[in-house]
């Protein structure tokens, strides 16, 4: 049977196509079967955590988690950040870079064919040329590394794996950005509420001050009473500048997250939006599902897998490098036409490299160890994130309910103090203290409402929610499979 070079070309092309990325690698860390439960020392004053947060082995990770807050403004901001955030745009460009790098790596497995045409005038190579003549040389040269020993397959697999790493890194950036936007948005609403609470209490305190001044004219109150009431209103009013500064700074931050100049979306963002009641129950996925879904864990795992391919590539450098060389040319003049050609092989086997390949292998081992430890650390931090966020949410839920009771009680106490003061049964100090307590309780409750929602954002983020959403124009890793 006559040998056909196309057989060899087809065989090597099939071999190159088999350079798949390594499958998912184990971190070696035992994943808990369920999330830790919080033991309450006083069940009567605590919230039944198991009735609020439910861990379900069949539950999927919430991707559109912001829908739980029933906030139309937040929904619109999410759409905007997905389209226009600059850091996310950089991440998408990195995925494109990895995609094109993968295309180059695939093309690098194929033959390289160069063509050269060089017209000239002079004496030809044949002795029949007795005077200068016009010559045209046309050459075709082909070089092809025949990867019989699979030297380049690990490198190609590594390139595909790094494409998957870039894609997972983009997902992680998106998850982080959405979480930052959610937390910043609820901070903004908190500052907005704090300003309203302060203004509302300031108006009440000013009415009290006017009442004291009126009593002073009738010799029913002293200058000391007036100054004490004035001091309270001044102290309350002094909170406003800092709150307004914080509110404006948060507006600026959200605008930048949306990829716009500060002030661009101010009118839309700062439109008052009351906080909707939270769902009574939260269903979270099991630990194994969360770890498989979190983009940062996936990125760390793909980086470790790429390091394994890199070590395999370094190991393959001990094998020979075989290159197929071919040449075909046409030399034409007025007197003669020649068609020189040649086919040959180059085989290069490392004999004495003074430890270069061994050093390359040692470097790959060290890089692999770093990647593996980083993978393990990422898994541990992912588990820690969820446990911490669940704990924070549970305790904040307890605090929130107690603060809500405190607000009711302090408002009632302030009303009673005001009535008794007008009737002469209590002094001004009791009124001022009661009014101050109302301001403090309402302010603390507003902070708690915000913290509760931020804790919930953190829980959804710790689950890896937000990377697979409609409108996310990311580059998928399908081509790297």
Fold and architecture overview:
With 481 residues, the protein is an alpha+beta fold. The protein is 60% helix and 11% strand. It has one domain (24-113, 149-319, 354-480): Outer membrane efflux proteins (OEP) (Up-down Bundle), CATH 1.20.1600.10. The strands form two sheets. Strands 2, 3, 5, 6 and 7 form a five-stranded antiparallel beta sheet that branches. A two-stranded parallel sheet has the order 1-4. Helix 3 packs antiparallel against helix 5, helix 5 runs antiparallel to helix 6 (223-237) and helix 5 runs antiparallel to helix 7 (239-257). The longest helix is centred in the C-terminal third of the chain and has 68 residues, at 356-423. It starts with a helix and ends in a 19-residue tail after the last helix.
Q: What key attributes describe this structure?
A:
481 residues, Outer membrane efflux proteins (OEP), five-stranded antiparallel beta sheet, 7 strands, 11% strand
């Amino acid at each position: 049977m006559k040998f056909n070079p196309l057989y060899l070309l087809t065989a090597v092309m099939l071999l190159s196509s088999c350079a798949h990325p390594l499958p998912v690698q184990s971190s070696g860390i035992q994943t808990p079967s369920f999330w830790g439960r919080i033991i309450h020392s006083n069940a009567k004053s605590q919230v039944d955590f198991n009735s609020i947060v439910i861990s379900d082995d069949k539950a999927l990770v919430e991707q559109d988690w912001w829908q739980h807050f029933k906030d139309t403004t937040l929904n619109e901001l999410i759409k905007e950040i997905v389209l226009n955030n600059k850091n996310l745009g950089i991440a998408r460009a990195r995925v494109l870079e990895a995609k094109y790098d993968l295309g180059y790596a695939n093309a690098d497995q194929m033959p390289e064919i160069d063509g050269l045409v060089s017209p000239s005038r002079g004496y030809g190579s044949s002795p029949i040329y007795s005077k200068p003549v016009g010559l045209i040389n046309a050459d075709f040269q082909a070089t092809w590394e025949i990867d019989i020993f699979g030297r380049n397959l690990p490198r190609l697999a590594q390139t595909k794996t790094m494409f998957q790493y870039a894609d997972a890194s983009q997902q992680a950036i998106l998850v982080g950005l959405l979480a930052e936007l959610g937390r910043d948005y609820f901070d903004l609403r908190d500052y907005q509420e704090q300003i309203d609470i302060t203004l509302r209490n300031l108006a009440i305190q000013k009415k009290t001050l006017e009442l004291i001044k009126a009593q002073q004219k009738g010799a029913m109150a002293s200058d000391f009473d007036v100054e004490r009431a004035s001091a309270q209103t001044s102290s309350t009013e002094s909170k406003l500048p800092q709150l307004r500064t914080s509110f404006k700074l948060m507006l600026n931050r959200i605008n930048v997250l949306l990829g716009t100049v500060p002030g661009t979306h101010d009118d839309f963002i700062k439109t008052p939006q009351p906080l909707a009641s939270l769902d009574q129950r939260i269903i979270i996925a099991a630990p194994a599902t969360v770890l498989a879904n979190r983009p940062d864990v996936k990125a760390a795992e793909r980086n470790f897998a790429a390091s394994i391919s890199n070590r395999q590539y370094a190991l393959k450098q001990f094998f020979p490098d075989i290159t197929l060389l071919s040449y075909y040319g046409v030399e034409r003049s007025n007197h003669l036409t020649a068609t020189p050609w040649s086919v040959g092989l180059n085989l290069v086997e490392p004999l004495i490299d003074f430890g270069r390949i061994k050093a390359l292998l040692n470097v790959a081992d060290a890089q692999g160890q770093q990647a593996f430890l980083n993978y393990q650390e990422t898994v541990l931090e992912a588990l820690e994130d969820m446990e911490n966020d669940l704990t924070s949410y549970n305790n904040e839920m307890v605090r929130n309910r107690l603060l809500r009771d405190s607000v009711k009680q302090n408002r009632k106490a302030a009303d009673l103090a005001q009535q008794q003061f007008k009737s002469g049964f209590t002094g001004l100090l009791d009124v001022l203290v009661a009014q101050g307590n109302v301001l403090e309780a309402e302010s603390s409750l507003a902070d708690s409402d915000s913290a509760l929602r931020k804790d919930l954002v953190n829980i959804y983020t710790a689950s890896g929610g937000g990377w697979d959403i409609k409108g996310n124009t990311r580059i998928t890793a399908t081509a790297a499979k």
